[in-house]
Amino acid sequence: MNTHSKTVLGKISYTNAWPIFHYFDPRKLTHPVEMVTEVPAVLNQRIHDGSLDLSAMSSFAYGMESKRLMVLPDISVSSKGEVKSILLFSKKKIEDLGGGTIALTNTSATSVNLLKILMTKFYKLNPAYITQEPDLTSMMEHADAALLIGDSAIQASWTNHGYYVYDLGERWHDFTNHSMTFAVWAVSSEYAKCHSEVIHEITDAFISSKEKIMQDLTPVINEAIQKIGGTKSYWYDYFTNLCYDFGENELQGLQLYFRYAHELGLMEHEVRLDLWNENKLIRVTE
């Protein structure tokens, strides 16, 4: 656990989390906060070794560490249907991939395990999996299909490659009628015990950032065009399509995802979701 006077906070560098961070300014908080911007894998490791007090993190990584973490309320990266940035590109229809090979991105455990749940539980298929760097051309040289996430998936979806394209958020919703939560904001339970006021202030600042940016998405749309490309209409649809809340719908969808992950042996233990709320712990039971 961090023993310094500052709260060390992790920021996901991915586009889909930008709205929650855009107007979040640590300098305006009464308590000093140090922000660490990294890809999820690095943030997950720092949560694990205790050098982060609070962080945005991939849902699967939260599940792995759930016994010592609590989820902050009202913020997440979720979708109810299409997510647009977690895509399976395939040479053949998804139903025909049973004896095939799927190349997995090496950047996201949440999406990789979502794909495995979909293939095993709902399509009743057992393809072979290999893991590669996220490059569609090289992945397709070695596999029948490729899973890409984030900016790699978005840019690949803009090219005329001739592959079938399946949106995993949409597939999950089609089969379960639930939302899928890809990232949560979690805090160390030990840290939360002694710093309730700090957590409250940080949570409020994140929620305020989310509410302000959703009223006018222009700043994040312009940043996305500048850094990744694309059009205003694409990015407007992308950001408005995502859900940045973490309410009952998102909670139920995430619980179902964890239950399937455990049933299929992808998660060693059952995940108990603990929600942080002021000075009391809300223990979520199914």
Features of the shown structure:
286 residues, alpha/beta, D-Maltodextrin-Binding Protein, domain 2, 2 domains, six-stranded mixed sheet, five-stranded mixed sheet, 25% strand, EC 4.2.1.151
Biggest sheet: strands, sense, closure? Answer: 6 strands, mixed
Sheet-strand content, in percent, reads 15-25%
The N- to C-terminal Cα distance equals: 30 Å
Low-confidence parts lasting 5 or more residues at pLDDT below 50? none
Radius of gyration: 19 Å
| Coarse morphology | globular
Q: What's the mean pLDDT score?
A: 93
Number of helices: 12
CATH superfamily of the largest domain: Periplasmic binding protein-like II
* Total tally of structural domains: 2
Helix content: 40-55%
Pathway: Quinol/quinone metabolism; menaquinone biosynthesis
InterPro entries: Menaquinone_biosynth (IPR003773), MqnA (IPR030868)
Family: Belongs to the MqnA/MqnD family. MqnA subfamily.
Function: Catalyzes the dehydration of chorismate into 3-[(1-carboxyvinyl)oxy]benzoate, a step in the biosynthesis of menaquinone (MK, vitamin K2).
